[in-house]
Amino acid sequence: MKKVLVITYYWPPAGGPGVQRWLKFVKYLRDFNVEPIVYIPKNPNYPLVDESFLKDIPEGITIYSHEILEPYRWAKLFSRKKTKRISAGIINTKDQSFIEKILLWVRGNLFVPDARKFWVGPSVKFLRNIIDKEQISSIITTGPPHSVHLIGLRLKQIMPINWIADFRDPWTTIGYHKKLKLSSFAAQKHKRLESKVLNSADKIIVTSATTKKEFTTLTEQPITVITNGFDRGVGQKKILDVKFTISHIGSMLSGRNPTNLWKVLSELLNQDKAFKKALHLRFIGVVSDEVLSSLSHYGLQDNLELVGYVSHHEALAFQDKSQILLLAEIDSFETQGIIPGKLFEYMAAKRPILAIGPKGWEVGAIINETNAGCIFEYTDEIELKNVLLSWFEQYKKGELTISSSGIETYSRRELTRKLSELI
């Protein structure tokens, strides 16, 4: 059985989508004759914690860890809430306080590529001995944080190893990169580091075809697309909500504010008393003040339920019983290649997906290919209204279902099969 060292910052009990990708790969790699060995920080500062992920760690797996210096711990002395949001990549661009501006400038210009850069040097020194001890010939780094890739870069420079760099998100073209108040020096340093990683890794993995297209202009190294996926039964029979529930799972931030949807729902409320009585908007996770203001502006506050952050297990239960699952992405060119991990779990829930995002959003191709729902741009209103009316009529008859197909290729186990072939 071939050994591979997986170097990752996010690992249980970390919560959120970042931890799931490599937790699930590690869970299934043994099925394909690959023995994963995992390296993680000993004392990380995770913005979200979800103990339920601990049960997915394979029994007997070898896990090494080393201490990490976390500047975000110091930043909490100034503002715990703002530091937590910046750590999670949530950056408010409106009405920033003086402290928030300072924190962003420091994050963007003193911590390149990110605040976990201090883990690189100690990790390289520590892992040299581990690689020799375990007789490891292949390593995998996954980012963000992209400083993890610098561990792979340095190890590649001093040892004869095969290095695979996995990009869960792009580096310099990610949406929040422009908000970091970068100096020209810091911006160029990001570019240089990105180029070094892309041209030094033996193989590169990305989560979308858009990112692959972008990276092919920066490197000639082989690039493989392996999306995120789901790890659960498909379309399990569940008791659905009595109400006409439209649920959104995850952070509904200011940039993901589909005002065209709120407007259409408001019109339907005013036109149809039955629709007004049945509609139930449910948000599981963080909802920005701007989104809440928009919902109030369109008179939807009485149809609203704010659940807050829940465990992954609880989130799946909410998905299964919802009538419709809402997926929204920021309306910008930079987000065309962002494929949220929850898309695939939505697909596994076998409930109609209502997706609203930028023109050319890669999610649209997946939804259309699998017939898992409908996708709209932020300017669409008439067709959006027609689809909602159609779904509402089906709901009233107890016939609101989805006839999706081909989603099994997005199961975590099948995706791990593809990864094992690459290793």
TrEMBL record:
GO-annotated molecular function: transferase activity
UniProt-listed InterPro entries: Glyco_trans_4-like_N
Domain of life, per lineage: Bacteria
Annotated transmembrane regions: none
Positions of the Glycosyltransferase subfamily 4-like N-terminal domain: 107-231
The keyword Lipid biosynthesis is assigned to this record: no
Gene3D superfamilies assigned to the protein according to its UniProt record, in alphabetical order: Glycogen Phosphorylase B
Keywords: Transferase
Name under which the protein is recorded: Glycosyl transferases group 1
Species annotation: Maribacter sedimenticola
Source species taxonomy: Bacteria, Pseudomonadati, Bacteroidota, Flavobacteriia, Flavobacteriales
